[in-house]
Design brief:
Number of helices of chain B: 9
Shape of chain B: elongated
Number of strands of chain B: 16
Order of helices and strands of chain A: EHHEEEHEEHHEHEHEHEEH
CATH architecture of the largest domain in chain B: 3-Layer(aba) Sandwich
Number of strands of chain A: 11
Radius of gyration of chain A: 34 Å
Largest interface: A-B, 56 and 61 residues
Order of helices and strands of chain B: HHEEEEHEEHHEEEEEEEHEHEHEH
CATH class of the largest domain in chain A: Alpha Beta
Largest sheet of chain A: 6 strands, mixed
Structural class of chain A: alpha/beta
Oligomer: heterodimer
CATH topology of the largest domain in chain B: Rossmann fold
Helix content of chain A: 25-40%
Strand content of chain A: 15-25%
Strand order of the largest sheet of chain B: 6-5-2-7-8-15
């Protein structure tokens, strides 16, 4: 254990601590002939202890004044928690109303909750419920934009989710580029625990075969599970419909994307934002994934120990006071 | 009231009153020493211009040539380390015509690592469109600051290079109230127009923007693209178009201080030219951007220092003063 000081220059006061070692602290008792007093080992020992105690009192206070602290320490712990990349759709379509809410007037959608707002609300709840995980965040539209590196500080993650409330969405939706950029978070990182990409999107995008292969390949290589929180657009048929009839890509691009994700060999789950229990399911689902404990570095913050020094000094002072009261002043 | 000497003297001569006083003082240093005080902290949203003109290498970092963007990242990093703890910083990027907020302000000391890691990742490749409409970007940044917590100040770092060029007569409207959001426009870049590099996928310079690759005059002056190409618009001076295009220098970029000063005046922000990390930090630490926040501060050192003096008096001075005067004269000495 290392001790560091905020104001090391105060330690020069320690020089003064040596003085009681050489001076005599006890009261003066006049006595005619010192020679008559026999040498007493115990008395000598007590005298030495008292001198040491006096000097230690000064030393403790001086050290306490110099601001001693135990520096912050990185301790490797083993615990539970996943590495989760939040992949948030910031395309223009996310500004449009969310499909899973009642509309008073089907023609007016102005005051309805936007898909993006629903997504951010769900993500905030998710993060708030899983504070032990590490998060990274990407916003994607035409280009993926990294918004946060992998971090375990929940405040900054919530700040990044919150930032999505400012301004409109950007432009198109390129889900493929977004997923690939999200997987790249794990490039060169040691595999310390379950990895999840949490895609939050209305899924209005199509992937070409090359991108599909690339995604499947990379998910497998980096052992990443894909979770899709599906935000349904208004008047969209939804993702898991078994309605017969034409299965045109144009009618339901999200369904096509879903079908592709289902062919992945890596874990894939879809959560429908309309379903109130979906969020809880997503939260607990990550728990099931992480079958293996993860190693993580926990930083123990620096700790001030000045008060301990002062307390030690107080104990010694009390002792000295008792001793002093017990002193004989006169024979 | 004077304390009679015969009471005062023995008290001063004996160590115990001093020890007792030290005990009380140390006790209060441990127990009753934290007080709420106000401290100046700051809350900034840093908006970084990531348009291509920021890739011009006309800045200097530690004696080495650096691009404007590298320079900006470096000065913000310095600011993260120099602002007092309790201050907050958020990060946004500007390209095209708007600011994109990456995260709203968070405390800088606790999040220092995440902040500087993210700042490191800011790159011109994040741009979703290759345009640089500085005035509109600034307005949207002001708008964004207005939407996050109160007392957030804007720090907009840019070279002021408008691409496509702006028309002097037709300006984008500024809707907000001037001065409602305060903060700084920081001018980055050199006075001499520099070439704007082209990069390949690997990030290496493969050339520079040339005269005929960029719009040399504003879109209004080019006229309307109607049935007849380049039809003049009412109130727009279209004289000498060919000549103006020929003389255009828009493929080169320098710090547009006049433009930024004008924008600052219009929006009620302050303009400062940033040419070193220290000027940047100095402008950020200006009192007028500070917010007074209550923080718990430990004043234990005051009673503890007093206790130390009491102890020195009681354990060093008192014994020395009361050292036995030589009552045993040499004549009386027994010689043991």
């Amino acid at each position: 254990m290392k001790i560091a000081f905020l104001y090391p220059w105060v330690l020069f006061l320690l020089v003064l601590c040596a003085v009681p070692l050489f001076s005599r602290g006890a009261a003066v008792v006049r006595f005619s002939t010192l020679a008559l007093i026999p040498e007493d080992r115990i008395s000598t020992l007590i005298a030495v202890i008292l001198r040491l105690a006096r000097s230690a009192v000064l030393a403790f206070v001086a050290i306490g004044l110099s601001g001693p602290y135990l520096p912050e320490e990185a301790i490797e712990r083993i615990g539970e928690g996943a590495q989760i990349i939040l992949l948030l759709d910031r395309s223009r379509s996310m500004d449009q109303p969310f499909g899973g809410q009642p509309f008073k007037n089907p023609l007016i959608a102005g005051d309805a909750e936007a898909k993006g707002a629903v997504a951010r609300r769900l993500l905030s709840q998710f993060v708030a419920n899983r504070r032990n995980d590490k998060y990274g965040m990407l916003a994607f539209s035409t280009e993926p934009i990294q918004v946060l590196p992998l971090t375990d500080k929940t405040d900054i993650i919530l700040a990044a989710i919150n930032a999505g409330n400012i301004g409109h969405g950007l432009s198109e939706t390129d889900v493929g580029a977004g997923i690939i950029a999200a997987i790249k978070f794990f490039e060169g990182q040691p595999y310390t625990g379950s990895r999840v990409i949490m895609l939050v999107s209305d899924g209005g995008a199509r992937l070409n075969q090359l991108t599909r292969n690339h995604i499947a390949d990379m998910l497998q290589r980096y052992r990443v599970a894909l979770y899709w929180v599906y935000i349904r657009s208004r008047n969209s048929p939804g993702i898991v419909t078994t309605s017969p009839g034409e299965q045109s890509d144009d009618v339901a691009p999200a369904r096509v994307l879903h079908e592709y994700f289902q062919t992945l060999e890596t874990p894939y789950r879809v959560f429908d934002a309309e379903d109130p229990s979906a969020l809880a399911a997503a939260i607990s689902d990550v728990n099931e994934l992480q079958s293996l404990p993860i190693r993580y570095i926990d930083v123990v913050p620096r700790k001030q120990i000045a008060n301990w020094c002062f307390a030690a000094a107080m104990v010694l002072i009390t002792m000295l006071l008792i001793v002093e009261r017990a002193e004989i002043r006169r024979w | 009231m004077r304390i009679p000497r015969r009471f005062a003297e023995p008290l001063l001569r004996a160590p115990w009153p001093w020890l007792l006083m030290a005990l009380v003082l140390l006790g209060s240093a441990i127990r009753y020493s934290t007080f709420r005080v106000t401290q100046d902290t700051y809350r900034y949203l840093f908006v970084v211009d990531i348009t291509q003109s920021m890739n011009v290498a006309d800045m200097e970092l530690g004696g080495i040539a650096a691009t404007r963007l590298e320079f900006v990242k470096s000065v913000i990093e310095t600011a993260f380390g120099s602002l007092p703890c309790g201050s907050e910083a958020g990060l946004a990027i500007f390209t095209a015509h708007r600011a994109f907020v990456m995260f709203t302000p968070v405390e800088i000391c606790e999040h220092y690592r995440a902040l500087s890691e993210m700042l490191e990742k800011v790159d011109w490749r994040m741009a979703w469109t290759a345009r640089s409409e500085v005035a509109k970007g600034l307005y949207s940044a002001i708008d964004a600051v207005g939407q996050i917590e109160p007392e957030t100040r804007l720090v907009f770092l840019t070279d002021g290079h408008e691409a496509p060029p702006a028309n002097q007569d037709i300006r984008p409207p500024f809707g907000a109230e001037p001065g409602a959001v305060t903060g700084l426009i920081c001018g980055i870049g050199g006075p001499v127009p520099g070439r704007i590099p082209h990069f390949n996928d690997a990030g290496n310079i493969v050339g520079y923007w040339s005269h005929d690759e960029v719009l040399q005059i504003d879109v209004y002056s080019l006229g309307r693209a109607a049935t007849e190409q380049g039809e003049a618009m009412v109130g727009i001076d279209m004289a000498n178009i060919a000549r103006r295009i020929m003389l255009g220098q828009e493929h080169l970029s320098s710090l547009q201080e006049d433009h930024l000063r004008e924008l600052a005046m219009q929006t009620g922000l302050d303009y400062v030219r940033v040419d070193s990390p220290s000027t940047f930090v100095e402008s950020l630490l200006d009192d007028k951007y500070a917010r007074r926040t209550p923080v718990l501060s430990d004043f234990g050192w005051i009673p503890a220092t007093l206790a130390f003096f009491c102890l020195i008096y009681g354990l060093v001075v008192v014994p020395w003063r009361s050292r036995p005067e030589s009552v045993i004269g040499p004549s009386l000495h027994l010689g043991y």
